[in-house]
Amino acid sequence: MSLEVQPASSLQGRWFRWRLDNGLTLVVVDNPAADIVAARLFLRPGMLAELPHQWGLNHLLAATLTKGTQRRSAQDIALAVESLGASLGTEAAPDYFVLGLKAVTGDFPELFELASELWRLPTFPDPEVALERELTLQNLRLQQEQPFHLAYDQLRRTLYPHHPYSVSTLGTLESVRNLTPEDLRAYHQRYFCPAHTVVSICGRVEPERVRAWVERCFADWSAPAVDWQPPPVPTPEPPVAPLRTIRPTQQSLVMLGYPGPAVHSADYPAMKLLSTYLGNGLSSRLFVELREKQGLAYDVSAFYPTRWQPAPFGVYLGTAAANTRLALVKLAAEMQRLLAEPLPEAELLTARSKLLGQYALGKQTNAQIAQLLGWYEVLGLGADYDFLFPQLIRQLTPEHLWRAAQRYLRHPWVSLVGPATALADIG
Amino acid sequence: MSELVYPNAPVHTITLTNGLQVVYHYQPTAVVAIEFWVRAGAAVEPAVYNGLAHALEHMVFRGSEQFPAGAFDRLIEQHGGLTNAATSQDYAHYYVLTSLDHWRESLMALADVLLRPDLAAEAWEQEQAVIAEELRQAQDHPDWVGQQVIYQHCYPDHPYGRPILGTDETLARITPAVLQQFHRQYYHPGNMVVVVVGAVPWEQLLAVLEEVCPGSQETQATTPRLAAPPWVQPVYRQLVWPQAEQGRLWWVWQVPETQDAATGWGLDLLAAILTGGRLARLTQRLREEWGWVQDIDACYQHQLAGGHWQLTAWLNEGVCPEQVQEVIAAEMLALQHHPVSPDELRRAKRQLLHAYTFAMETPQQMAQLYGYYHYVGWLEQGMQYRDRLSQFDPESLQQLACRYLHPEQAVRLWLQPGVAV
Q1: How many angstroms separate the CA atoms of A407 and A311, rounded?
Q2: Is the ipTM of this complex over 0.85?
Q3: How many domains in chain B?
Q4: Residues B159 and B296 both lie in one domain
Q5: Which of A103, A174, A271, B111 is the most buried (most CB within 10 A)?
Q6: Which of A:184-243 have CB within 8 Å of B?
Q7: pLDDT band at residue A65, thresholds of 50, 70 and 90?
Q8: Same domain for B153 and B249?
């Protein structure tokens, strides 16, 4: 077993990291601020391991992991969690699968033991899988109500053909219909192993005692590590005509998307800062120009998720159907401006302070801290990245951002959702 | 100054000579949460200017003489802080989250734009377009649409039945003069509560507040008490909504004005027993056993002149709303006829107690809770939350259910998905 101690972390307490003999990674942060302990159990690689006919498998796994183990029924599990007044939830993400739990400190060992049982011995009972599969299909239909979702969905389908990033974590109607309890059991058997597991815990705890709890629950676990390769990333050309979905909505959703870099890319910090500059907060460029000055939108923003493989970068707004064309022209002009010349230094400094300040504000609760450090471990960046990321952001100059924009933001994918009359004349 | 002992540290309250009420909690964190609660919610706006309170909340962010267009947002965000606001029927609520180094200038700036906003004609013209977009966006969401319809039926002939966002017609009537009049009437220190949670020294905080909100309490009127909503007959409405992919069902009961916070906590316990977790009665039957709903949620919403207790269910395709309503009616009736089991009650209490602990983890969460409780006059009762919650027994919950939640008294709405055109 190896131990590292991070001396001067940007986090309040120090964080500790161990690698158990079976390969499981454990990160612990002692944060005495509240009488709460939060834990996150991560599994690499999430949706990236799904083949197209299995899309949504991790989501269905998340919905049914808590519905039965070799020792307990769905009812027993719910009773254990709810009797403690704790929270326990699961989630599928593009790059990982996660089980999160939160309890008052005194209840934590009992809850963590239950979590480890769910992690190691789930049974995926047939009726529970059938129920959650139906509910997932309903949920997929419900997603169709949201203009943002429709615009984002058609964008990622064309940005990432045949790749898991092309669909929501729920999967598709076709793929979900065909998922079986056997698929879940086979996937669990193959991928759930210590070498792919990261346990991240934050709260009013003594790290050494936490390690003892985790070892008690996991040290005797010896599933073999899986041989796994990430899927190839497609590199499509931008479509010649805008992507459109016709909906009888009051507003049109106007979105420009681009294939951005992965988190491991040297351009990742610059693109994060560009995304903040454009769309984060009331002083962001798009908010001020398109909302405050031109009244084109209420909701206007940017996205650039942190991903293991190249991530989509985008900007969007919702606007009155009659303003669809105008909004598209204005949004495109803002993106062109980034290519024309480096941003004024003062604008970069404001965006930088905002990004760094909000990054710090995102680490206030134990659950947030456990999530962030565990995620960095899963992405292969290591918990140290929490310290490194702000430094990388501080080093950026207007030229860095300009070069990144030149590299990634030259050719937009245009994605539109709205009434037929509004989209008809945009070619 | 009075001192109340909340779980972690004392909460201080004081009223300054200018009438401003201050709620303060020293918390040794790097983050400071600052909030203003203004007694200027949508319910006090004239009906012809429906949407005015929310419009003024938008216009505050358009700045003042000292912080012209965008300067306030930039000041807060360039130091890594956050700011935003929300308007409800009872109040407008503004907040800033900032680092300890910047609490002073952030507080001064927020107070300045609140007390001395420009409300210029050109800015209002721009902001009207933004609010029109907010309204359009809301109208594209079936949950929002159904919620407005249920409020209309739950609070007929009462301000609580009106949309906070207003309508296209009423928004078009609002002029800068109307905004100024509303601001003069309600946005003065005597009509505000400021909440500060963080490592801010008390003396320095007082000095800053005296500086930004000078003077003594003037004769300005405070917000009048709102009349209680008229009692409403049970009604069942149906609405076909082509944009909806899924049907939604609402059951809502008016809960008359109460000074007793514990009534609300008891209603929270009933909500937890019905929908708070997989074992909760309605979740268990409608989602887990029969797969009829995507989700079902119950909650009590307190309002100054009278709140409501609401059930919302998102029905799966092909499920008949009458089937679901029969189950709801049977469970609501069961709560009146039989006391809940001690185990159920124990779980519900534990869930609420821990939710309370989880909801007090950050300065922002604390500030919001103290601010809200102070606003509705429950700060002192709130101190007793744990003790009071533990006193509930099955019989007292049964009494609450009988008094407030009779299935035949519910105001109901079925929002039915239609064929898209």
Answers
A1: 14
A2: yes
A3: 2
A4: no
A5: A103
A6: none
A7: very high
A8: no
